[in-house]
Amino acid sequence: MLKILICNFHSHQVNIITPDFLLNRFVLNSDVLPTMQKVSVRSVQDHQPMTMQVYSRWDLEGMHDFLECLEPDMALKILTCLDDSADLVRASAVSRYWQKVVVSNGLCKQLCMRTFPQLGSITRVVEPSHDNLGKSEHRAYASLFRAITAFPLTFCIADPVSASSTGYPKDSIKNTICRGSYFKTICRGSYWLSRGSDDPETPETLIYNLSANFCVVTEINLHLRKGWSGYPIYSSRFVRFRMGHPKSVKDLNYDFIKAQECADDKFIWTYTSPVFPVAQENLLQKFRLPAPVVCIGGYLQIELLGRVSKSSDDKYYICVAQVEAIGRTLSPLFSVAFSESSDDVHLKYDAEECGYILSTCGSISRVQPQH
């Protein structure tokens, strides 16, 4: 596999991993780093040093950029193998030619699309402070990749939207978003309870508005429990998750909870998870998604499939005490805007604020939500 990695610019050292057949053609342009003192070349096969030469600033005069010696398709293939936007940004700073390859081919955008397929629905990047579309997209997607992978994890649910059914008005979906010590002390006896059903295959859905219309969800947690003391756990057999956006903002100017109506048909679900089995236990169960999911639109649906336990009325119920969505909120640095008259989805990007926030991510990226 062709791969080239560039790092440690600030320590005046460039480490390059490259195929063996390119080793004898490797030279650096004098514009790379005027103060650079050391160049280390390593093989892709074993990552062991193959050659080591020390160049002074003046030694580099007159040399050629090895990437320019290759066919354009080969140069593009090498840089496409980089799997971190930070490496692509560094590569684009090596020379004008490298920048042209990275920016004109939208390599940061391609990396985002490969890693997070949900971003494929974005049709345009809006960065008010810049007019150059190519460079604007390069900056936006490079920063977006970093934000998706480095912003701190947090709780992402803001408000409940609707439940497919509710047994009693007091057993509302609103009871499910308490968490932490508040849940343990105030909401312990609160929960959402479905209507009873004669059919154990009757599904239920819960819909929530996330804390931003553009965020990344990595894990969803559910606490299924007993409806009344002395009764069994009213659990579903399986659970599935969907994420998406409303068909029309106007549809959400309605209190589905108060009306006890389901809002499932008011949304376009752009992501559907695998089906997860649910343990029949009275505890918070964690469902980690196969890969982080970029939720474009800011809505989460929890689909509870199958029923296990009957109540004294000989009907099947599902009871949920707590729901959590764990992920990274990308707003206000990034947000999305939908056009109801077309399928356009615009990514809005605040470059200045994003640069400041990302510069602090090294110290906050490991923050975990506390239960």
TrEMBL record:
Q: What residues does the F-box domain cover?
A: 73-114
| Pfam families assigned to the protein according to its UniProt record, in alphabetical order | F-box-like (PF12937)
Database matches in SUPFAM superfamilies:
F-box domain
| TM spans (from-to) | none
Q: Which domain of life is it from?
A: Eukaryota
Query: What name appears for this protein in its UniProt entry?
Result: Putative F-box domain-containing protein
